[in-house]
Specification:
Helix 1 packs parallel to helix 4 and helix 4 packs antiparallel against helix 8. The protein has two domains: 6-66, no CATH class; 80-160, CRISPR-associated protein Cse2 (Peroxidase, domain 1, Orthogonal Bundle). The protein is globular and about 45 Å long. 52% of the residues lie in helices and 2% in strands. Strands 1-2 form a two-stranded antiparallel sheet. The protein has helices at 6-19, 23-30, 38-45, 53-66, 80-85, 98-107, 115-127, 135-143, 151-161, and strands spanning 88-89, 92-93. The termini are far apart. With 178 residues, it is an all-alpha fold.
Amino acid sequence: MEAAAAPVQYVAWLGSLVHTHQYGKLADLRRPATADSPTHYEARAFAPTEDHRALYRQVGFLFARYHAGRVKPHYGYGNMGRAIRSIGYDGARGPANPGAERLMMRILPARQIPWRHLQHAIERIRAGETTPPSWAELITDLTRWTDRGRPAPEKWGDAFYSRGRTASPTVRTNGATK
């Protein structure tokens, strides 16, 4: 399997579990790493290298946590920094929300992948019914977590702290108006 296509194929498989209501397999993915099942081996088989097998399994866990009780898959959008920026309530989201900022400041400086804090982020995103990160992009970012220059944490920090530059609701991004 080509390394660049592996995250997309894996997320498509995870989405198919939700779409086809394979709740038993999703429940397997939510179980701890010590309780391996055939589903865990299926999940790890998508990893392009042996080194990434545990990472794929953990992202499957996060995906299954987010989708617990859901009937439609959500493939997410953007990176984790953008998703955490949506945590909070009207008027206090992202950097303006002390809880979201504390969570981000636990994730960004971590030298190793901060799985516990990522799980907390996914739980908060799920509870707030906001858009999760792109699961494929999450895999790609986490495979580069320890790369020189720390590009993934930098990208997440930029997305979390950037000023929202969204188009007006009456103006479409292609220039058309309502």
